[in-house]
Design a protein that fits this description.
Blueprint lengths: L19 E6 L4 E3 L11 E8 L13 E7 L7 E6 L5 E4 L4 E3 L10 E7 L8 E5 L2 E6 L14 E2 L10 E10 L5 H7 L2 E3 L6 E5 L15 E2 L8 E4 L10 E3 L4 E3 L1 E11 L2 E2 L5 E2 L3 E8 L5 E11 L5 E3 L4 E3 L5 E6 L5 E2 L7 E2 L8 E7 L2 E4 L3 E2 L2 E2 L10 E3 L6 E5 L7 E6 L4 E6 L5 E5 L6 E9 L2 E9 L1
Parallel strand pairs: 13-18, 19-23
Antiparallel strand pairs: 1-12, 1-17, 2-11, 2-16, 3-8, 3-12, 4-5, 4-11, 5-6, 6-7, 8-9, 9-10, 12-14, 15-16, 20-21, 22-23, 24-25, 25-28, 26-27, 26-29, 29-30, 31-32, 33-34, 34-37, 35-36, 35-38, 38-39
Length: 457
C-alpha cells in the first residue's frame, strides 16, 4: 500500500520556546544590531515591555535607563532614544531635547510602553503611552529632529552610556505612527502573522529562564533577520540573563485548506494516519505558540487485492485493473505471461501473489495457492507501514509496548530482521540492502500476532 506524507515546512512541529525576556544588569549589558532604524523625520512607533525598580531621578542620584536607541551622538537631533528618566517615567530624546511622561514605571511591575512620532501632526507630533493610556503629547523645542540611521541598540544609548537596569521584552519598531487603538489591541500578544509597518521585532524569547545560557548570545529579529548580539551578559542565574517574560500570549491562528488523494492510507501533518476518505483537521503549534490549523479534504483509494481460488485458477477480484502475477517461491519473480486477471499457475503446488494497479494506486496481495491462502493478513492489524511500496526506508507505526517484537520475513518464510523491546509508537526500518520483492512484517505483542505485507521496489 502507499501513503503520502504532507510536507508543510513552515508549519512543522517545533520545540516551543518559553515566553521569556532579558534582564539587563544596569552596568554594561546591551544588545547591538545591524537594524538601521528610521531616518530623518519619518513617522515611527517604538514599543516594549519593561520591568524595573531602578532609580532614574537625577535629583535623587539616579540615571537615565535606555530602552532602545539608534542614530548618532552628534550633531544634535540625530539620535532617537527611548528611555526612562525624570519621575521614573518614559521619555523620548533626539539629542539636545526631549519629551518626558508623568507615569512612574519603576515600581517593579511589567508595563507596556510606547512612543509615537507623527510628522503630520504639527502641534503635538510626539505621544507617549503607558499600558494603553496616553501619558503625554507634545513636541521638541530648540532642536530639529533629523535621525541618522545605524547603531541600533537595546538597553544602551548610542554613545555607550546609561544602560538599562531591569527586564525588557517584546521590542518593536514601526515605520508608521500607530494609533492608540492599534497599540492597545496588540499590547498583550505576540504576532503569528507579522503586520505591515513593523520593521523590527525582537521577541526576546530565547534561552532558559534563569538557566545556564552561555551559548545563547543572539536575539532573533523576525522581520529582516537583523539579529541582535548580546554583549557583556553573564547568561547564568537570575540577573544579566534570560528570565521569565511579561506573560503575553501568541495572537491568532493560521488556517490552511488542502485537498489530497492517497492510496490506502495517509499520514496527516500531525502524524495521525487516516485510512478513509473525509475532511480532517490537524492543529499544530509553530515556533511562536500560534495554532496552525490544517484542513485536509482527503480521498482515499483502496485497491482490492483479494484473490478467489478454484481447483485450477487464481483470479484477482478487482476488475479492469493492471495485473502482475508473481511467484512467491521464486523471490517474487514475474510469472511468464502473468499479466491477466486470472492465472493458471504453472506449478499447481506453488504459491502466487498479484500486484494490482487501479486508478493510480498499486497494492499487492498475500500469497495464494490453489488450496487456499498461504499467508494471511489480519484485517484488524494495528500495524501501519509508510511508505509502502518503499525503496528501502520505511516507518512502522504500532502500539507502544516494551516487550513487543517486530519480525520481517521474505515471502518464503526466511526471517531477515528482528527488532525487540518496542519503546515507542514508531520504528524506522531500512531494508535497502535487501533484494526487491514482497516481505511480510509481523508484530508480536501481548500474546497476539499481526501481519502486514510490504513491497520493496
Amino acid at each position: 500500500m502507499k501513503s503520502k506524507l504532507l510536507a508543510l515546512l513552515c508549519l512543522s512541529v517545533l520545540h516551543l520556546p518559553a515566553q521569556n525576556a532579558l534582564n539587563f544588569d544596569g552596568v554594561d549589558d546591551y544588545i547591538s544590531s545591524s537594524f538601521t532604524g528610521i531616518s530623518g523625520t519619518s513617522a515611527r512607533t517604538v514599543e516594549a515591555w519593561v520591568r524595573t525598580t531602578a532609580n532614574t531621578v537625577p535629583a535623587n542620584g539616579g540615571k537615565q535607563k535606555v530602552i532602545l536607541d539608534w542614530g548618532a551622538a552628534s550633531p544634535l537631533g540625530s539620535r532617537f532614544t527611548f528611555n526612562v528618566l525624570f519621575n521614573g517615567a518614559i521619555r523620548v530624546e533626539v539629542g539636545g531635547n526631549g519629551l518626558s511622561g508623568n507615569i512612574d514605571v519603576t515600581d517593579g511591575q511589567w508595563h507596556h510602553v510606547a512612543a509615537v512620532y507623527d510628522p503630520s501632526s504639527s502641534a503635538n507630533p510626539i505621544k507617549l503611552y503607558v499600558d494603553g493610556v496616553l501619558d503625554v503629547s507634545g513636541n521638541f523645542t530648540g532642536v530639529t529632529m533629523n535621525t541618522l540611521t545605524g547603531n541600533f541598540a537595546i538597553g544602551r544609548r548610542v554613545d555607550g552610556v546609561n544602560t538599562f537596569e531591569g527586564d525588557i521584552d517584546e521590542v518593536k519598531v514601526w515605520n508608521v505612527a500607530r494609533s492608540l487603538a492599534s497599540i492597545v489591541a496588540d499590547t498583550g500578544t505576540e504576532y503569528c502573522t507579522l503586520p505591515a509597518g513593523l520593521v523590527a521585532y525582537y521577541r526576546l524569547n530565547e534561552g532558559t529562564a534563569g538557566g545556564n545560557n552561555s551559548g545563547v548570545t543572539s536575539a532573533t529579529e523576525d522581520i529582516s533577520a537583523a539579529n541582535g548580539t548580546l554583549n557583556n551578559f553573564s547568561l547564568n542565574g537570575n540577573s544579566s540573563n534570560w528570565v521569565a517574560g511579561s506573560g503575553i500570549i501568541a495572537k491568532g491562528a493560521n488556517f490552511i485548506s488542502v485537498t489530497e488523494n492517497a492510496c490506502n492510507d495517509y499520514k496527516g501533518p500531525s502524524g495521525v494516519i487516516y485510512d478513509s476518505s473525509g475532511t480532517y483537521l490537524d492543529t499544530l503549534q509553530n515556533l511562536y505558540g500560534c495554532d496552525s490549523v490544517i484542513e485536509t479534504i482527503l480521498t482515499i483509494q483502496h485497491v482490492n487485492v483479494d484473490v478467489t481460488t478454484t481447483s485450477n485458477t487464481l483470479k484477482a477480484d478487482r476488475n479492469n485493473a493492471t495485473y502482475r502475477w508473481m511467484d512467491c517461491n521464486d523471490n517474487y519473480k514475474l510469472v511468464a505471461g502473468g499479466t491477466n486477471q486470472t492465472l493458471t499457475p504453472p506449478d499447481p503446488n506453488g504459491s502466487y501473489a498479484v500486484s494490482v494497479s487501479y486508478s493510480g494506486c498499486t497494492d499487492t496481495s498475500a500469497c495464494y495457492s490453489l488450496d487456499g491462502v498461504s499467508l494471511l493478513e489480519n484485517e484488524l492489524s494495528p500495524l501501519r507501514l509508510y511508505p509502502n511500496p518503499t525503496s528501502g526506508k520505511l516507518q512502522v507505526s504500532h502500539p507502544a509496548h516494551g516487550k513487543g517484537q517486530i519480525l520481517i520475513f521474505t515471502a518464503t518464510g526466511q526471517m531477515v530482521l528482528q527488532i525487540n523491546d518496542l519503546d515507542s509508537q514508531e520504528t524506522e526500518i531500512n531494508l535497502s540492502f535487501k533484494p526487491k520483492g514482497v516481505y511480510f512484517i509481523k508484530l508480536q505483542i501481548d500474546g497476539k500476532s499481526f501481519l502486514e505485507r510490504l513491497v520493496l521496489e
